[in-house]
Amino acid sequence: MKAAGRSVRTRLRDQLAASDPGLLRLTAGLRTVGAIALTLAVLASAGFDVTRLVAGAMAAMVATFAIREKQRGAQAVTLAVGLPVALVSVSLGAVLSERVVVGDAFFVVLIFAAVYGRRFGDRGTALGLIGFQVYFVSLFVGASAAQLPGLWAALAVAFACSALVRFAIVPVTPAGLLLRLRTAFRARLGRLVSAQLALLDAGPDEVDKALEDMREGTARLHETALMIQSRLEEGTPDESTARLVQRRIADAEIAAERLGLLLLSARSAQRADTLTLHLPGAPAPEVGRLPGPDEATAVLRRDLLALRALVVRTGAGGTGVAQLRNRLLGYRDEENLPVATPAVRDVFRAVGETARAVMGLRIALEGPQDESDDSPATARSREELDAEDAAIDAGEEAEAAEQPTGLRRPTTRAAVQVSVGSTLAIVGGELLSAHRWYWAVLTCWIVFINTASTGEILVKGYRRLLGTVFGVVAGILLAALVGRHTLTAFFLVLVLIFAMFYTAPLSYTLMSFFVTAMLGLLYTLLHTYSWEVLVLRVEETALGAACGVVAAALVLPVNTDRRTNELLVTVLERLAEVTEAAVGQLSGGPAGDLLDKARELDQALGDLRAATQPLTHPVTPLRARRTNARYVVALLETCAYHARSLAATAELLPTHPSIAADPRLRGAAGRTVRNIVTIADRVADEDVTVPVETGPSIASLLGGDGTARYGRITDRVLRHLERLDEAVVGLARPLSVPVKSPDR
């Protein structure tokens, strides 16, 4: 019974870790709710009235979510500096509440300063948020100069409670967060293997659903890998350990993705393109029964189950786990492969390589393992991993990129835009309501947060308005149910705040829904609730979103095309750098910092993916443009996968006995790098007319016929180079780059 109970707890923990990597959303929700609840308890026991309770609760929420630094010491400093900022802000809000023109002018100046403060990093962003939001709190509760002593006390209690919850009740250390992210990576890797199992067994009518699950699992695994990379420096004891973990995470991700692609190819009537894994909604290729003897299919199903067990199992594992590992790692030797077609044998090889990556990840995360039951194949894999670990060194410092200045600086431009938009929102908001105009300003402020183009602001404003409309309906129902029951209302407020922070990274519409529903309850507590008030909130929200869009479109505009083109050029430049460096190393050139280059490529691609949301949003009327944007991003993800794989293979050169440098690679892959640069130049300048080159296959350029196996370099390198070359040429058509056919 105890073992069964532990098994259930383990499964639940893995499911939670997979759905919320690092428990970041759960932690944010618990911290915020805990800080608010503690603040309310302290203020209520001291006899504060409802107005100060609401002010304290909102201040506790701001003090909690505004702090974004990763190190605890930096968080403490920002929180300490934030309190006097909050006291000054609420005081000015109360004093200027009766001086309409001066108060409005100061609010605009405060908004400019808060947005401009982002240029000073996380601390500047946090202090700007605190200053703006606390000024908004003073307007929300109708603060006056006579109420300031009580409000100062409420704010001081709120910041103290936020600090207590952050550092004592719900503490998060960099090492602890990294540990939870690693658990999430293992859980998501296990889910991806489960999706691959489902693809193996899927019938013709089920394959589209199985492929979509595998596609989603691959994307989520990559998302978690990026989250781990962003936390490595703070969560590991030294740079060498950070690089080792980064390398093992990348190996496991690439091996799992390659396993899925080879499995899909083995089930397909024709070769499955890597693009199939990265293009949402792309139909699955025609599939049939796995070719070859039925025994091979049964063995493959058994081995995928064993691989999943190796992934999710924690601890030493015992003799049974060692036997599973030995069997899977044996597939790395040709003589241990079962009798099957070449495509199916490739899948078994991929299972062996994934098992090796899982073992390397386990060693990197958990330390040395028991080697008493190792088979010769497992012992050789351990020796390779040990040699790779010894070869990992610190890397070079990255050069600082040149930053734009003046109005070209993003923070300056955004500060000017949001100030103009807020001025419009103040004027329009006061025409709608002399007492609730600040909702329009708040919406205008929020739609500019974490956005950089007019299209992004338009989409965010639409989502906020949609969430607000549905939130008004929920607020009406909740207010009717709660009535005058203060404790019930505060309890529901806490529930809605938790839901708001838990869903914020998933859906901005859902977050806006919970915010508006919560405000309906707060209005009930302040005895200012009415149908008219909630309808007015919808009107002010629509006005604020419109003012934000107008300001973004007319004041120092950055249209979506311009921003996506800039980010696209950056992605292509990073892709060229990774490819050229990896091919150079595979050709016998000096070793470089390929891990960091691959990470920069992934980050640039993530920025581009976020920036194209206005183009790929379901409500966009430009259907052809949406399809084109999705196709380009999917092709770039395909290119990034092959570039990462080349980089990972290049780093094996000093230690892997079956891989040796081949000087011919540099010349053979030169066309691919030139094509990437050509496409980047064309995107940056439409007047560039240099065409993309096509020609013979990479294998033929190396002197082979495309079918022979190579002794000095692996078939895998050739495969990745071929697919990368095809994907780069494929980018030419949607980006309107001319293609030059080879001379005959």
Q: What topology does this entry show?
A:
Blueprint: H1 2-19, H2 24-45, H3 50-65, H4 72-95, H5 100-116, H6 121-140, H7 148-169, H8 174-201, H9 207-235, H10 239-267, H11 294-312, H12 318-329, H13 342-366, H14 376-391, H15 410-432, H16 438-448, H17 454-482, H18 486-503, H19 508-525, H20 531-554, H21 560-586, H22 594-611, H23 613-616, H24 623-650, H25 664-684, E1 692-693, H26 698-701, H27 715-732, E2 739-740
Helix pairs in contact: 1-8, 2-3, 2-7, 2-18, 3-6, 3-7, 4-6, 4-7, 5-6, 5-15, 8-9, 8-10, 8-11, 9-10, 10-13, 10-24, 11-12, 11-13, 15-16, 15-20, 16-17, 16-20, 17-19, 17-20, 18-19, 21-22, 21-24, 21-25, 22-24, 24-27, 25-27
Q: In words, what does this structure look like?
A:
The chain is 73% helix and 1% strand. With 744 residues, it is an all-alpha fold. The chain has a two-stranded parallel ribbon. The protein is globular and about 85 Å long.
Quick tags:
single chain; 744 residues; mainly alpha; 27 helices; 2 strands; 73% helix; 1% strand
Strands of the largest sheet, in order across it? 1-2
Q: Work out the radius of gyration.
A: 29 Å
Calculate the terminal CA-CA distance, rounded to whole Å. 74 Å
Shape: globular
- Structural category is mainly alpha
Q: What is the ordering of alpha helices and beta strands?
A: HHHHHHHHHHHHHHHHHHHHHHHHHEHHE
The tally of strands reads 2
Approximate helicity band: over 70%
The average pLDDT score comes to: 84
Largest sheet: 2 strands, parallel
Proportion of residues in β-strands? under 5%
Identify low-pLDDT runs.
1-6, 393-401, 705-712
Q: What's the tally of helices? A: 27
Keywords: Cell membrane, Membrane, Transmembrane, Transmembrane helix
Membrane topology: Multi-pass membrane protein
Domain Integral membrane bound transporter: 425-550
Region (Disordered): 364-389
